[in-house]
Amino acid sequence: MEKQQYIDRAEHALYKIYNRFPVVFDHGDGVKLYDTDGQEYLDFGAGIAVLGLGYNCQELNDAVKAQIDKLWHTSNLFYNEPAVAAGEKLQKAAGMEKVFFTNSGTEAIEGALKIAKRYAYNKGMAPDYEIIAMKHSFHGRSLGALSVTGNDHYQEPFAPLIPNIKFAEFNNLDSVKSLMNEKTVAVLMETVQGEGGIYPATEEFIKGVRTLCDEHDALLMLDEIQCGMGRTGDMFAWQGYGVKPDVMTVAKALGNGVPIGAFLASGKAATAMVPGDHGTTYGGNPLVCATASKVLDLFEEKKITEHVKEVGAYLWEKLDGLAAQYDCIAAHRGKGLIQGLEFQMPVAPVVANALLEQKLVLISAGTQIIRFVPPLVIERADVDEMVQKLSAAIEAVLAAEKQK
Ligand SMILES: *Cc1c(COP(=O)(O)O)cnc(C)c1O
User: How far is the CA of 368 from the centre of ligand 1 (A)?
Assistant: First the structure.
């Protein structure tokens, strides 16, 4: 079928929420995607930081297929072996006490928020207790997650949301300090802000927030949905800072594409909720947990974090080169294989389109930033190919700007 026919059918049937690129993907292999016209693309988006192990990873495919023939779902009224295995591996990787499996990142955030609320309730705090979140953050689209997402444009049409959420400036410790008081029950932030423009927390900031939380008996809740699972070169980004959260959320690369997320908790946060407080029908079912369990094994076998450090440093060097070469690039930020280039002008969507012409998939974060969140298994040669295509796209956009 013609590409345009798929697009027309999609627009006819599917709720109009996304502005999609006019590409219909058919299959993938490693770090390459193929569309229905048989065109090959180099992928530096990984389905929004999801396909850590890349496409068509044979060991993972085999593990999932084996589970498909065995057992998909039982409900959480019973125990299942893959959930035990995945839970233990996640617990060990994070060095945290308890794991709860969800179906998405958003649901992991909902769970974290419920821990914070339950913690306040357990402490007998008055109901006007406060949660501090960050400006320019992103935590998901449900009403709870939206309440802590520091973006007026997303929030406004759905107000009123959860009350008593205060927004601090990310990487500004004074800003958190000024909002923190006896009403504060938790601070929630991404260790590396993703959608907000690829801003890693500074060490001073994250350590300072940890100390403030300790002083106020507040929970530090770190959203590692995008920056966790090896992406920064540590299994979880906070492990590179020498701080530890009370609650952490993960998702995206945990399932390499099957819908699974989790929240983890330690200390008082690990016992705040009790049986009956929370639940899910699908969450942690054998199918998705067998996948996550194998993903965690493969991360160890393939020494993914070491590889990310190595190839991430190479990507850093190459993008620094581009930033030096082109005046239109204002900044280069990030860590490991989550990096961003910020343009002087709001051309990120135009660049992303020009990149598709070059058969490179790269996503934007806002209107001025392009985001590099490739499969974690990319090699130096892929980085070189990407840089070539990106240079060509930037040249094309600059030439078009001149024409105007
Ligand atoms: C993607 C993302 C979420 C939401 O996850 P979903 O799986 O889309 O629900 C939350 N927080 C961060 C930091 C994310 O990048």
Answer: 20
Is the same domain home to 317 and 294? no
CATH number at 78 reads: 3.40.640.10
Q: 385 C-alpha to center of ligand 1: Å? A: 29
Cβ atoms 300, 88 nearer than 8 A = no
Q: What six digits make up the tokens of 261? A: 């997320």
| Same domain, yes or no: 396 and 293 | no
Is residue 404 very low, low, confident or very high in pLDDT (cuts 50, 70, 90)?
confident
- For residues 34 and 173, state if they share a domain: no
Q: Quick check: 1 pLDDT over 80? A: no
Question: Is there a single domain that holds both residue 124 and residue 149?
Answer: yes
The whole-angstrom distance between residue 297's C-alpha and the CA centroid of its chain comes to 20
**1 CA distance to ligand 1 middle (Å):** 33
Do 387 and 292 lie in one domain? The reply is: no
Is 106 touching ligand 1 by the criterion CB < 6 Å? yes
Spell out the SS3 assignment of 116-143: HHHHHHHCCCCCCCEEEEEECCCCCCCH
Q: Are residues 104 and 145 in the same domain?
A: yes
How many domains does the chain contain in total?
A: 2
225 lines ligand 1 (CB under 6 A): yes
Give the SS3 label for residue 184. strand
- Atom number, ligand 1, closest to the C-alpha of residue 223: 13
Strands lying side by side in the sheet with 98-102: 98-102, 261-265, 247-250, 219-223, 184-190, 130-134, 165-168
Same domain, 397 and 255: no
- Helix (H) / strand (E) element for 384: namely helix 380-403
Structural domain of residue 336, as residue ranges?
3-53+303-403
Rounded to 5°, angle at Cα 225 from 243 and 22: 150
CB-CB neighbours of 91 under 10 Å: 15
Distance 106 CA to ligand 1 centre (A): 6
Residue located nearest, by CA, to atom 10 of ligand 1: 139
The mean predicted confidence, pLDDT, of the chain is 97
Q: Is 28 in contact with 45 (CB distance < 8 Å)?
A: no
Assign 403 a pLDDT band (cuts: 50, 70, 90).
confident
**Cα 44 to Cα 374: distance, rounded to the nearest angstrom:** 4
Please indicate, yes or no, whether residues 71 and 211 belong to a single structural domain of this protein: yes
